[in-house]
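Usage

Read records sequentially. Each one opens with the input sequence:
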Amino acid sequence: MAYFDNAATTYPKPECVYREMDRFYRSHGGSAGRGTHEGAKSAGILIKETRERLKKLFHASDHEIIFTPTATLALNMIIQGMVKTGIHNIYISPFEHNAVTRVLHAMAKEYPLSIRQLKVGEDLAYDIERIRYQFDEEAPDFVIVSHASNVIGLVAPVADIFSLAKKYHAYTLVDMSQTAGLVDLDIQNAACDFAVFAGHKTLYGPTGISGFFMKPDIPLPPVLFGGTGIASAEQDMPKDLPARYEMGTMNISGIAGLHAALGWLLATGIDKIRKREDANRQQLLKLLGEYDFLQIVGVNSEREYVGVVSVLFDGISSDSAGPLFDERGIAVRTGLQCAPLAHKFLGTFPAGTIRFSVSYFTTEADFEALRDVLDEIEEEL
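and closes with the structure output:
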């Protein structure tokens, strides 16, 4: 299989990820915070070291790290909790995932929310001046921005948007599911109150381990409850972070894999990883541009992108085009990619697009396989 679905989950992972997950479970196997025996202690040490590596990678010494099974769950915990504090005016980008928009849609049925989109021009530039006018008209309580679109890979100027939002005393949330470990964002200096990461994407870890950074002084009420291993006599969730938001048994195997992936990332360097992915994206764009029956969506050479490219086929719906790749061993993603708002902005709703996404590990063999399939499709059209 030639793998061009890295925006869903990166594959393959660094070899050290596979080895460490197997080694840890064979050698340890305890549950952190659930005992004083060696297995529990070693799991606790592993979690502590993983938090330290994440803080180093994100330049986030002043933030707390909360582990969750998925980025979707992290976004739910943050958004639902913040809405319950009484915020009303919420701004989002036009590129938010359903993990944001469906939560807001559900909460708006119970709370008086005003949800508005940040202004982005037809040239795909975030219009900071127009956003300022928006904020003057209706001051933001909460600003949520996807750092990079999972449909076209467009990177948002998070620091500029959040710096402006802070002048109105708004809380800020950046969804880094497509950029964590790839785009070097200093979340402290970028005025990020919350930053969500997906361990299985550009952090090159396994599925089942994600989480979020948060400033410890934010009054975020918990929306999930259960055992934490501390203060067990109390029926309220503990005040201490991160225990307040980390209930239940953690995915120790997933954290072991993420720990290894972070070691690989820090040793390799974000700049090197980004440079290779950028080169792979350019190679992908060049290859796709050779075929007249393809139309590349949402590309502007003056904007910043990660390795995600969407296309349309002339005369064929995106869903119908999917099997043409599946049958020939090419992994792509078709349809709306769980981001209908982005497709409405791009004019590709409701059919969506065919999405190709590369990674650090995309090979020449992958590109050659894709070329062969595109040649076959061209002959059939």
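Summary fields computed downstream for this record:
- The chain has two domains: 2-11+270-380, 15-268.
- The chain is about 40% helix and 15% strand.
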